[in-house]
Amino acid sequence: MSEMSESAPKTEKSELVLETEKLDKVYKLSGRQVRALSDVNLQVKKGDFISIMGPSGCGKTTLLNMLGCLDKPTYGKVVLDGVDVTKVPEKNLYKIRKYKVGFVFQTFNLLPYLNAIENVELAMEGTKKSKDEKRRRARELLKMVGLSEREEHKPHRLSAGEQQRVAIARALANNPSIVLADEPTGNLDSKAGYEIVRLLGKLNIEQGTTIVIVTHDSHKAAHAGRMLFLSDGKLQAKEKQGTHLLKKELICPYCGREIQPDDTFCPRCGKRL
């Protein structure tokens, strides 16, 4: 991983999917003010795969809630697909959350009485898709995340890693502009967690999905294209390049040799990709 220059050229506005300007979030607790976020400026362009890393309590989830229109900042603005969502009335925000943002949560949030395909279809309720179109889309997405054989399984019959794959399929159901993942590997063992990060990387490469994940795990964060760091509610100036950009170019990030899209391990150096 290499450090990226702080003087990189600015991104054209037309390339931006998401942008924050001077974002602050202040909570009032027991008569005192607690600043959870301070002057956060972030740009996410189409096709980015970004990880935001930091310890527990640094403001990662608070920031993700602002980006996903689940909460509003105290100061500053969030611009999603050219719309300043901080000015959108609460009664209209549900449309932005439904069509513009796909959410992946640490705890999966699947409905236990629905099977995998029904959980994915649920995200499309209220859209103009017919019942058959919803079923086709859900089936296509489950195939994309490697769960074609688990369509009829309810969550209790799926492993934790498989449940998170269903959650990722659900997040993609309405072709969102961006997928936001809050500690998506936090409830998984190391093998399943690695497979989820690898799946997100594959979706970014093959589908062009724009992804932002927050995590406290530096090993998982390193699999993204850009690694950002949050500390005490402030986004640090320097960022690092993760291994994903090299893998996107079919180059092993460890030995520099050519790799294939489906390689799990580098055929040359043997390291896990």
Overall residue-averaged pLDDT value: 90
Distinct helical segment count? 8
User: Based on CA inertia axes, which overall geometry fits?
Assistant: globular
The figure for the number of domains is 2
Name the poorly predicted regions.
2-9
Quaternary organisation of the protein chains: single chain
Second rung of CATH, namely the architecture of the largest domain:
3-Layer(aba) Sandwich
CATH H-level superfamily title of the largest domain: P-loop containing nucleotide triphosphate hydrolases
In percent, how much strand structure appears in the residues? 25-35%
Order of helices and strands: EEEEHEEHEHHHEHEHEEEH
CATH class of the largest domain: Alpha Beta
Map the helices and strands:
Blueprint: E1 2-4, E2 16-29, E3 32-45, E4 49-53, H1 60-67, E5 75-80, E6 83-84, H2 90-99, E7 101-104, H3 116-122, H4 131-144, H5 160-171, E8 178-182, H6 190-207, E9 211-215, H7 218-221, E10 226-231, E11 234-235, E12 239-241, H8 244-248
Parallel strand pairs: 4-9, 4-10, 7-8, 8-9
Antiparallel strand pairs: 1-12, 2-3, 2-5, 5-6, 10-11, 10-12
Helix pairs in contact: 3-4, 3-5, 4-5, 5-6
